[in-house]
Amino acid sequence: NVARCPIIHLKQLQNHETKENVDAGSGIIDFGALITLAKDADFVYEQEHFVGTSMDNVQKSLAYILSL
Q1: Among 34, 24, 32, 27, which Cα is nearest to 60's?
Q2: Residues near 19 by beta carbon (within 8 Å), at least 6 away in sequence
Q3: Which of 17, 44, 64, 66 has a Cα-to-Cα distance from 57 of 20 to 30 A?
Q4: What is the pLDDT of residues 3-45, one digit of tens each?
Q5: 50 pLDDT exceeds 90?
């Protein structure tokens, strides 16, 4: 119900043990399933740790999310 939860906060995790952030699409969270279930909601993506530059990671993660 989008009225109850209008914005979904997405954050990708590498694995269950370390819970370290990674680029969207390269971790254990199935963003495609979440976006399908909440297709009428808005989304916010957060990533705290980067390999390379933050801009490279933003571009990679955005490309993945837009492909869903």
Answers
A1: 24
A2: 13
A3: 17
A4: 888 999 999 999 999 888 999 999 999 999 999 988 889 999 9
A5: no
DSSP characters for the chain? -TTT--EEEE--BS-TTT--B--TTSSS--HHHHHHHTTTSEEEE-----SS-HHHHHHHHHHHHHH-
Tokens, residue 59: 């571009």
Instruction: Please classify residue 23 by burial: count the beta carbons closer than 10 Å to its beta carbon, then call 0-12 exposed, 13-18 middle and 19+ buried.
Output: buried
Domain ranges of the chain: 7-67
For the whole model, what pTM was predicted? 0.81
